[in-house]
């Protein structure tokens, strides 16, 4: 009896993930551009929030400046695409640029914990925003970059797929994002992820165990920066425009929201959170212009009563039920 | 040249005084309650809007607004502390920050709902228009007024904390909450009081900014980030630090606008980053074990 229960729960996850991927891949066949655009945004925010959660959910470091890396990924990719570089090269360089910035800023940020870490990331994030906004000769200032092409993909001389049509780009984005999410999942279940959770619980003990906590946090910071950058890099050709708003601290707040709503302590929490965040925003914006108020109330409720987010809450209920038997 | 520099220093100090009023409340709240209040800038904004309406209702009487608006904010602060903040003192710092952040979002929309999304302006009160000249540099009366109020608040806070019995109690509670509770201090009431004082200061800053700044619902975010920078430079929880930090950033800011316009926005953040790297606990802060 017990064995069969374990088996069924072993089945459930791959089934759920498979279904999730199938739905995403089928969206263009059933839904119009609107749904594709919406799902693309959910995937990008999922990636962004999962990368943020490497720091927050795993290691317990709240960053309020992830928008900086997202913006660097987006701007570098946008600029390179405008300079007619191939898409994959542009995205790769956007990804790397965000990682380099994370290495530099992370070097300073990880020396601090708690409130100082949050403030320092906020300050660096706003610094990047200020630079992006004012350095108009490169970034286009307030207007940002406009008319970013999507380019094409393929082996030169053999095959080439135009990504200008939305659906083609959608599939490209889906594939890249899913691979990235899988990579983050591998990190989550790796010994490295375990050390990060150890740091969250008690960083002093981790240090005493002979593991340099700060080095681990720096690596986590770089991973978070890289994948935030990737989300930004994929966003630039999707939107075809990049403005300074992507570096603003409200952008940095989005992954915070997504992770908290879904549940920061479960791997798939930020994905569910991203789905709810974007769905809710799309829905509320239609009803009222006061969506910040609604989000404020949601956040307030989560912090006061459901700090594990939705998945954390469900997990808790299941555990309660199990312990009753 | 010298005249320009003198003028810039004076404007910088006046600008610093604003930052000081906001940062003082932020720092005081953090020093005693150990909660960094993201919504402090939103209280400033709310104070400005309440004052704006009071000036309008009273037929242009700035002084009535000056007296009432900060009190309104103190009451709002009381509600926030008693109903919400009180429940999160034992939580992880991240969740405390997020709770205060939820108030930033809500207050922005509440302001938008009540006063509309457009920019609002209100004139300088008639008694304070005009300029005075110091060493051949003409300088608006209103800035002098701000200098006086800012200094008076600084002096008042200093006297309160260093020279009164209540100030000692506040200090004692800030350094050891359990101990001061054990000797009979009503800690919850004290927390409410300190939070109200912080909100009062935010409201005061808000009303003073009404005549020279245009109001918009995004003001809270702008103000809080600057105030963060100031308190971090001076040292979280240190009033002296907040004062010096505010003046420093005010002066840097005005010089930045004049001589390094491209970096004007970045200067404050760079200064903060440098301080955090060299002296993470701030210029006047106390290193925590």
Description:
The complex is a heterodimer of chains A (325) and B (289). Chain A has helices at 2-30, 33-58, 67-82, 87-109, 114-134, 136-139, 166-189, 191-208, 213-239, 249-262, 269-287, 291-305, 309-324, and strands at 145-146, 152-155, 159-162, 241-242. With 325 residues, chain A is mostly helical. Chain A has a domain at 30-246. In chain A, α3 crosses α9 (213-239), α4 (87-109) packs antiparallel against α9 and α10 packs parallel to α13 (309-324). Chain A is globular and about 60 Å long. Chain A starts with a helix and ends with a helix. Mean pLDDT of chain A is 85; it is low at 1-6. Chain B is mainly alpha-helical and 289 residues long. Chain B has a domain at 9-119 and 129-217. Helix content of chain B is 73%, strand content 3%. The longest helix of chain B has 32 residues, at 2-33. The chains are: A mainly alpha (325), B mainly alpha (289). Chains A and B meet through α5, α10 and α12 of A and α4, α9 and α11 of B.
Write a brief structural summary.
The complex is a heterodimer of chains A (325) and B (289). Chain A is mostly helical.
């Amino acid at each position: 009896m017990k064995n069969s229960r374990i088996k069924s729960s072993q089945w459930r996850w791959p089934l759920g993930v498979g279904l999730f991927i199938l739905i995403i891949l089928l969206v263009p066949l059933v839904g119009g551009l609107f749904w594709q655009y919406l799902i693309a945004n959910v995937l990008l925010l999922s990636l962004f929030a999962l990368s943020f959660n490497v720091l927050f959910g795993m290691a317990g470091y709240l960053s309020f400046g992830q928008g900086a890396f997202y913006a660097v990924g987006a701007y570098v990719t946008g600029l390179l695409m405008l300079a007619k570089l191939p898409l994959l090269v542009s995205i790769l360089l956007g990804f790397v640029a965000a990682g380099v910035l994370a290495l530099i800023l992370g070097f300073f940020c990880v020396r601090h914990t708690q409130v100082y870490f949050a403030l320092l990331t906020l300050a660096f994030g706003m610094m990047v925003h200020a630079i992006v906004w004012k350095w108009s000769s490169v970034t286009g200032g307030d207007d940002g970059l406009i008319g970013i092409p999507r380019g094409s993909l393929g082996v030169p001389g053999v095959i080439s797929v135009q990504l200008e049509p939305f659906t083609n780009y959608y599939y490209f984005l889906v594939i890249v994002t899913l691979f990235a999410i899988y990579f983050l999942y591998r990190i989550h279940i790796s010994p490295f992820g375990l050390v990060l959770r150890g740091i969250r619980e008690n960083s002093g003990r981790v240090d005493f165990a002979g593991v340099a906590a700060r080095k681990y946090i720096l690596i986590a910071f770089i991973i978070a920066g890289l994948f935030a950058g990737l989300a930004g890099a994929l966003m630039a050709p999707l939107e075809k425009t990049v403005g300074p708003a992507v570096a603003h601290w409200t952008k940095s707040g989005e992954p915070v929201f997504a992770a908290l709503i879904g549940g920061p302590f479960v791997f798939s929490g930020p994905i569910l959170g991203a789905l709810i965040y974007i769905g809710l925003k799309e829905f509320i914006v239609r009803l009222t212009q006061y969506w910040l108020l609604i989000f404020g109330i949601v956040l307030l409720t989560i912090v006061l009563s459901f700090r594990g987010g939705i998945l954390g809450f469900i997990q808790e209920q299941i555990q309660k039920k199990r312990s009753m038997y | 040249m010298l005249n320009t520099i003198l003028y810039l220093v004076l404007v910088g100090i006046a600008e610093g005084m604003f930052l000081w009023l906001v940062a003082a409340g932020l720092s005081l709240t953090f020093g005693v309650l150990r909660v960094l209040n993201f919504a402090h800038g939103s209280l400033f904004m709310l104070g400005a809007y309440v004052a704006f309406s009071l000036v309008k209702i009273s037929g242009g009487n700035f002084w009535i607004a000056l007296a009432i608006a900060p009190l309104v904010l103190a009451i709002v602060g009381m509600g926030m502390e008693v109903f919400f903040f009180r429940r999160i003192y034992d939580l992880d710092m991240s969740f405390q920050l997020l709770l205060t952040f939820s108030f930033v979002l809500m207050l922005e929309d509440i302001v938008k709902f009540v006063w509309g999304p457009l920019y609002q302006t209100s004139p300088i009160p008639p008694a304070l228009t005009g300029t005075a000249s110091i060493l051949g540099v003409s300088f608006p009366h209103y800035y002098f007024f701000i200098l006086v109020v800012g200094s008076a608040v600084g002096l008042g806070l200093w006297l309160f904390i260093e020279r009164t019995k209540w100030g000692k109690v506040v200090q004692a509670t800030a350094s050891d909450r359990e101990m001061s509770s054990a000797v009979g201090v009503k800690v919850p009431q004290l927390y409410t009081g300190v939070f109200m004082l912080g909100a009062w200061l935010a409201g005061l800053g808000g009303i003073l900014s009404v005549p020279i700044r245009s109001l918009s619902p995004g003001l809270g975010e702008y103000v809080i980030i600057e105030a963060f920078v100031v308190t971090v430079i001076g040292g979280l929880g240190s009033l002296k630090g907040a004062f010096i930090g505010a003046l420093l950033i005010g002066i840097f800011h005005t010089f930045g606008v004049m001589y390094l316009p491209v970096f004007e926005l970045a200067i404050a953040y760079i200064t903060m980053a440098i301080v955090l790297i060299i002296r993470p606990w701030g210029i006047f802060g106390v290193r925590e074990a």
